[in-house]
Design a protein that fits this description.
The complex is a heterodimer of chains A (297) and B (447).
Chain A: H1 8-36, E1 39-40, E2 48-49, H2 53-61, H3 65-96, H4 101-113, H5 116-127, H6 135-142, H7 159-184, H8 188-196, H9 201-229, H10 233-238, H11 250-260, H12 264-296
Helix pairs in contact in A: 1-12, 3-7, 3-9, 4-7, 7-9, 9-12, 11-12
Chain B: H1 4-39, E1 51-57, H2 65-80, E2 84-90, H3 93-105, E3 112-115, H4 122-126, H5 134-138, H6 142-145, E4 155-156, E5 159-160, E6 162-164, E7 167-175, H7 176-181, H8 191-203, E8 207-210, H9 217-230, H10 236-241, H11 250-264, H12 277-285, E9 289-295, H13 299-303, E10 311-314, E11 327-332, E12 335-338, H14 345-365, H15 387-397, E13 401-404, H16 406-409, H17 412-427, H18 432-445
Parallel strand pairs in B: 1-2, 8-9, 11-13
Antiparallel strand pairs in B: 3-12, 4-5, 6-12, 7-9, 7-10, 7-11
Classes of the chains: A mainly alpha (297), B alpha/beta (447).
C-alpha cells in the first residue's frame, strides 16, 4: 500500500463506498436469510421460530433435496471439465490462426451476450419431438436413426444432461475468451528460448503455456464452478425443474419452496446451504490451486 | 510529475462516486416523500383532496377486452373525479403473484391488488392485510349483481375480502373439422368414448388433446375433472381437508388410473412437459390439436383464432358411469382486493365500487361477457356473440355444482407436491397407489 504513498484516509474514501455496498447488499442479506431459515414462515403471516427443524427436514426428510444437490454438483464439475477444452482451443487459435483470431473469438462469444431466455427457447426448439419440428430428432430421422429419437427434455433420466449441454455451449465462448487473452499475453521470448532448447508445439505447451496459464485457468474454473452452482435461469426457462423435479437444482428448489409452496423459511434454509457450499468450494479450489501453483512455479 | 494532480484527480473521482451514491439515496428519498405527501391526509370526507390510488392489475395485453375495460373505467373515473389519480401497476399474472408476496412480507400491499380465491388468498386474509368490503358491496346494489354463491369463495368469517372479475367453468373445446377427419360423428359422453376418440385421432396423426404441462396447473386442472367424476360428485378434497377421507381413497386412485389411460393412449402432445401453457393452447388454436380442456376464459381467444369458426364445446364425459355431466370444475376468477393499510381506504372503496358496478357492462360491450361473474342486461345473440360463445353460455345455465381447482382448495405446499406428482404421470407410468401415497404424505407433512 505504502508503495503508492497514499494516506490511509484516501484509501478509505475509495474503499468505503464499495465496502458499504457489499456489506449492505451481500453480507447482511446472507445473515438475514440464515435467520429466516430458522423460521416456519410463509413469507406473509407471522413467523414462528423453530430452530434447526428446516435444516433437519432438508437433510433427512426431503426426497428431492439430495438429488438436486447431486445434479448441481455434477453441473459444476461438467462446466469445470469444459475449461481444458477451452484452453486447448485457445492455444490452437493463437498458434494457427494468424489473422483475425479475434474475430473468431468474438463469434464464439456471441451466445454469452444473448439472453438466457432466447437461448433456452432456441434449444427447446432443437430438442423438441419431431412432430413439433424438433431439429435434433429431425436430423436423426433423416439419417435413418429413428430409434435414437428421444424426448430430450422430457425423459426424466436424461433431461438434466441436455440442460447441461445448453449451458456448456453458451459459456464455451466466455471461457475461450478468457483463456485466449491469457495465452496471447504470454511473453514471446520464453517461447523463443524454448525453441532454441528444442521445445516446440505441444511440448512447449506442456512445459511453458500450462504452468504460466495456471492463474488464468483458476479464474475460469472458479467462475465456472460458482456460476453453475448458482445456475437458475437456464433451468427455469427450459424445464422449470420438471418433469417432476427431474431437473431441479439447488436454486430452483429454493425458488419453488420459497415462492410456490410458500415455505419461505425452508427456502431460506436451502439458500443458506447454497451459500455454504459456494464458500467451501471456492476455498477448496483456491487451496488446490495454491498447491498446483507452488508445484509448477 | 508529482503526485499532486493524480491525488486531486483521485479525490475528485472518489467524490463523484460518493455523490453518485448519495444521489441514488436522494432520488429514493424524494420519491418516498413524494408518495407520502400525495398519500397524506384526506382519509374521511374531504372529496376535493388530492388522492393517489395504486391499482395493481394483471392486464398487460392491450389487445384483450379485459385490458380495454380496465383502462376505460379507470379513465372515466378519473375524469369524473379530478382529485383522484389512479396509478396502474400492471404486471403479468406470475409477476404479480410474486410481487404481491414480496409486498405482503413488508406489509406494503398496494391500495387495490389482485388475489386468487379460497385457499390461495387465505394467508393474506390471515395476516390481516386485506380490508373487508361488506360496506362497499352494499353501495349501489353491487352485491346483487354477483351470481349466487360466487362471493363465498372470497368470504372468510362472514366478511367478503375481494370481488371477482369473472366466474368460469372448465369445458372441452373441440375442432369439428379434425373430429370429422378422424371419422368421429358425435362428441363423447363417456370416458371410454373419449379414449376411443383419442385413439382414432391419434391414428390419423392428429394430436388429440392440446396441453402445455411445463406450467403444471394445466395437467392438474384436467385431472380434477376425472376426480370430480370418479368421486360421483364434488367435495373430495374438502373431505380430505376435513379428515373424513384420505388420498388413498378408491375414488382418487381410480382417477389416477383413468388419467394414466389417457396418457398411455397418446392423448397429449409429445414432450408436453416442456411446452408452456400458452404454447400448449396455441396447438389447439392453430388447428394442430383436436381438443382443448380448459376454462371458459379461453372462449374469446379461441373465437378470434384461425380455427374459431370450427370449434364447438362439450361437457367433460362421465367416468365409468359415475358423475354428472352438469357438474363442472369451477374457476371463480382472480379478484380485486383492497389493502387494509390503505392510506385512503374510503376513496379506494368508492372507486372499486364504481369499477365493479360498471365492469359487466363494459365487458359485455367488448364481447367478453361469457364467464362473467356478474349479471348483465342484454342479449348475447343480438349483441353479435358467436355460436361458440352462446353454446358455452348455455352450459352456465345448467351448472349443478362442482369443485374448485386443487390449488384453490389445498395449501400451497400440498398443491406443489400434487402438481409435480401429476406432471410425473405425463412422462412415466406410475403405480396409482404410489401416487395416492405421495399425495397423502405431502398432505400430512404440510397440514
Amino acid at each position: 500500500m505504502n508503495v503508492l504513498k497514499v494516506p490511509a484516509r484516501t484509501i478509505a474514501v475509495f474503499v468505503l463506498p464499495c465496502l458499504l455496498l457489499y456489506v449492505v447488499l451481500v453480507f447482511v442479506p446472507i445473515l438475514v436469510s440464515f435467520y429466516t431459515g430458522l423460521l416456519n414462515w410463509d413469507g406473509i403471516t407471522t413467523a414462528k421460530f423453530i430452530g434447526f427443524d428446516n435444516f433437519k427436514t432438508m437433510f433427512f426428510h426431503d426426497p428431492v433435496f439430495w438429488p438436486s444437490v447431486r445434479r448441481t454438483l455434477l453441473y459444476a464439475v461438467a462446466s469445470m471439465l469444459e475449461i481444458p477444452l477451452c484452453l486447448f482451443m485457445a492455444i490452437l487459435l493463437n498458434r494457427f490462426i494468424k489473422r483475425r483470431a479475434n474475430t473468431l473469438v468474438s463469434i464464439y462469444f456471441v451466445p454469452v451476450i444473448l439472453s438466457v431466455v432466447i437461448i433456452g427457447q432456441l434449444w427447446k426448439t432443437i430438442y423438441n419431438p419431431a412432430s413439433m419440428g424438433g431439429m435434433l430428432n429431425g436430423i436423426l430421422i433423416s439419417l435413418g436413426l429413428d430409434s435414437w429419437q428421444h424426448g430430450w427434455l422430457t425423459e426424466p433420466k436424461i433431461a438434466m444432461y441436455f440442460v447441461y449441454i445448453i449451458s456448456l455451449w453458451q459459456y464455451f465462448g466466455y471461457h475461450l475468451l478468457i483463456q485466449f487473452t491469457g495465452v496471447q499475453n504470454l511473453p514471446e521470448e520464453v517461447y523463443e528460448a524454448a525453441r532454441i532448447d528444442g521445445a516446440e508445439g505441444f511440448k512447449a505447451d506442456r512445459y511453458i503455456t500450462l504452468p504460466l496459464i495456471v492463474p488464468i485457468l483458476k479464474i475460469s474454473i472458479v467462475l465456472a464452478f460458482i456460476g453453475s452452482l448458482q445456475s437458475f435461469d437456464m433451468v427455469m426457462v427450459v424445464t422449470g425443474g420438471g418433469p417432476a423435479h427431474a431437473t431441479d437444482v439447488i436454486s430452483t428448489l429454493m425458488y419453488n419452496n420459497s415462492f410456490l409452496s410458500l415455505k419461505y423459511g425452508y427456502g431460506s434454509a436451502i439458500a443458506t446451504f447454497l451459500v455454504l457450499v459456494c464458500l467451501i468450494c471456492t476455498f477448496f479450489i483456491n487451496f488446490i490451486f495454491g498447491r498446483v501453483e507452488k508445484k509448477v512455479g | 510529475m508529482g503526485n499532486k494532480p493524480l491525488k486531486t484527480l483521485a479525490l475528485v473521482l472518489a467524490g463523484a462516486l460518493t455523490l453518485g451514491l448519495a444521489a441514488c439515496g436522494n432520488a429514493n428519498n424524494n420519491s418516498n416523500s413524494g408518495a407520502a405527501s400525495s398519500n397524506g391526509g384526506s382519509s374521511s370526507t374531504a372529496s376535493d383532496k388530492k388522492v393517489t390510488i395504486t391499482f395493481q392489475n394483471i392486464q398487460p395485453d392491450p389487445t384483450t377486452p379485459s385490458y380495454k375495460t380496465l383502462h376505460d373505467l379507470v379513465d372515466s373515473y378519473m375524469k369524473e373525479h379530478p382529485n383522484v389519480k389512479i396509478e396502474l401497476d400492471t404486471l403479468n399474472t406470475d409477476q404479480q403473484k410474486l410481487k404481491l408476496k414480496t409486498q405482503a412480507a413488508s406489509k406494503e400491499v398496494p391500495d387495490i391488488t389482485i388475489v386468487n380465491p379460497a385457499a390461495q388468498m387465505q394467508p393474506f386474509v390471515d395476516a390481516g392485510l386485506l380490508a373487508p368490503l361488506n360496506d362497499m358491496l352494499d353501495q349501489n346494489g353491487l352485491k346483487d349483481t354477483y351470481q349466487a354463491g360466487l362471493l363465498d369463495n372470497y368470504t372468510f368469517d362472514g366478511n367478503v375480502y375481494a370481488v371477482p372479475d369473472g366466474n368460469n367453468i372448465e369445458v372441452v373445446y373441440y375442432n369439428k373439422d379434425l373430429f370429422q377427419q378422424a371419422g368421429i360423428s358425435q362428441v363423447p359422453t363417456t370416458f371410454d368414448e373419449l379414449l376411443a376418440d383419442v385413439k382414432a385421432l391419434k391414428a390419423k396423426g392428429i394430436t388429440p388433446i392440446a396441453i402445455g404441462e411445463k406450467d403444471t396447473w394445466t395437467g392438474s386442472f384436467l385431472f380434477m375433472n376425472i376426480l370430480l367424476r370418479t368421486n360421483g360428485g364434488p367435495g373430495f378434497l374438502k373431505d380430505v381437508v376435513d379428515g373424513k377421507r384420505t388420498f388413498e381413497d378408491p375414488a382418487f386412485v381410480e382417477a389416477v388410473d383413468r388419467f394414466q389411460d389417457l396418457v398411455q393412449a397418446g392423448a397429449f402432445p409429445e414432450g408436453a412437459t416442456s411446452i408452456d401453457a400458452n404454447a400448449g393452447g396455441n396447438l389447439f388454436k392453430t388447428g394442430q390439436a383436436a381438443m382443448f380442456i380448459i376454462g371458459t376464459w379461453e372462449t374469446g381467444a379461441i373465437d378470434s383464432s384461425s380455427v374459431g369458426s370450427q370449434v364447438g364445446a362439450f361437457r367433460f364425459p362421465t367416468v365409468d358411469g359415475k358423475g354428472d355431466l352438469n357438474e363442472f370444475m369451477l374457476a371463480p376468477g382472480s379478484a380485486f382486493a383492497v389493502s387494509a393499510n390503505s392510506e385512503h381506504l374510503q376513496e379506494t372503496k368508492d372507486f372499486l365500487n364504481y369499477f365493479a358496478v360498471n365492469y359487466p357492462k363494459k365487458q359485455f360491450e367488448y364481447k367478453n361477457a361469457v364467464g362473467l361473474g356478474q349479471k348483465v342486461d342484454g342479449d348475447l345473440k343480438s349483441a353479435g356473440y358467436s355460436d361458440l360463445a352462446m353454446e358455452v353460455a348455455s352450459m352456465f345455465n345448467d351448472i349443478k355444482g362442482g369443485d374448485l381447482s386443487f390449488d384453490n382448495t389445498m395449501n400451497p405446499a400440498v398443491s406443489q407436491a400434487h402438481l409435480s406428482s401429476i406432471q410425473n404421470l405425463f412422462v412415466q407410468k406410475v403405480d396409482s397407489a404410489t401416487v395416492a401415497k405421495e399425495h397423502q404424505t405431502a398432505f400430512e407433512a404440510n397440514k
